[in-house]
Amino acid sequence: MKVKFKFALALVALVVSAATMAQTAAPAPDYTLSYNVGAVSDYRFRGMAQTAGGPAVQGGVDFAHKSGLYLGAWGSNVNWIKDFNLATKGTFEIDLYGGYKGEIAAGVTYDLGAITYQYPGNNSGAAKTPGAGSYSNASTTEFYGALTYSVVTLKYSQSLGDFLGNLNSRGSRYIDLSANFDIGNGFTLTPHMGRQTVPNQSIGARIGNAADCNDYSLTLAKDFGNGFSGSVAAISTNAYKSFYTDSKARFLGKDALVVGVKYSF
């Protein structure tokens, strides 16, 4: 009887000890380092085609510290520097960014940072190119600030110099309103609308505001697990066709359905 009682007592102690260990979460790491690679059927930036409606291969790396500090880099192939800005060099984009995220109140977070869109070796606007004197270098730097409440995010971005090679366009602005809805079974639905303003851009009867436009999108994404995800996005703009048509007569802001796949690790 005593042996049975001692055995039962030991078993209870073992169960309690195991439960206590299970409830004790491992301490959060000081930082995380993650990577991603993927492809899209049409690379769009603020509604505008960056690869002339063709596919793009993309990838990036992100560092996030538990303090809220983050840094990252991301790259893709592009066509528009040659086809729109009439450069002879510039077929790759690399974005370098960094900032700080924090919480203002329960359910309200902020994100402050800067990003530079670099196009290595691009000669947009350079002498002896077809676009000489009509464009500046394509590389662009912006600062940004965002507020998120629940599933809704409002973001403001402003360029520190010329925006994507448009002359005298310092101070270009972009306002982005989006939401991220979890609709179950790994699916998320993201509606988005944005407003881009680029000062001092004219063509035909549009004086000073020819590059200003809105863009709209609705993205359905699916997390397949093990780092794999896919998405399909319907994209539209109200861009002024005469301004946003490239040298090959392609309207960069036309409606599109974009399919993407990504692997994160």
What does this structure look like?
With 265 residues, the protein is mainly beta. Helices cover 10% and strands 49% of the residues. The protein has 2 helices and 15 strands. It has helices spanning 2-23, 80-83, and strands at residues 31-40, 44-45, 48-49, 56-65, 69-77, 92-105, 108-118, 140-149, 152-159, 173-179, 181-184, 187-197, 213-225, 228-237, 256-264. Strands 1-4-5-6-7-8-9-10-12-13-14-15 form a 12-stranded antiparallel β-barrel. A two-stranded antiparallel ribbon has the order 2-3.
Keywords for this entry:
two-stranded antiparallel ribbon, globular, 265 residues, 12-stranded antiparallel β-barrel, mainly beta, 2 helices
Give the SSE map.
Blueprint: H1 2-23, E1 31-40, E2 44-45, E3 48-49, E4 56-65, E5 69-77, H2 80-83, E6 92-105, E7 108-118, E8 140-149, E9 152-159, E10 173-179, E11 181-184, E12 187-197, E13 213-225, E14 228-237, E15 256-264
Antiparallel strand pairs: 1-4, 1-15, 2-3, 4-5, 5-6, 6-7, 7-8, 8-9, 9-10, 10-12, 11-12, 12-13, 13-14, 14-15
Q: Mean of residue pLDDT?
A: 92
**Which strand order spans the largest sheet, edge to edge or round the barrel?**
1-4-5-6-7-8-9-10-12-13-14-15
Distance between the termini: 56 Å
Structural class: mainly beta
Instruction: Compute the CA-based radius of gyration.
Output: 24 Å
Largest sheet: 12 strands, antiparallel, barrel
Q: Encode the helix/strand succession as letters.
A: HEEEEEHEEEEEEEEEE
**Helicity, as a percent range:** under 10%
The percent range for strand residues is: over 45%
So what's the overall shape? Answer: globular
Which regions contain 5 or more consecutive residues with pLDDT less than 50?
A: 1-23
Number of E-state strands: 15
Number of helices: 2
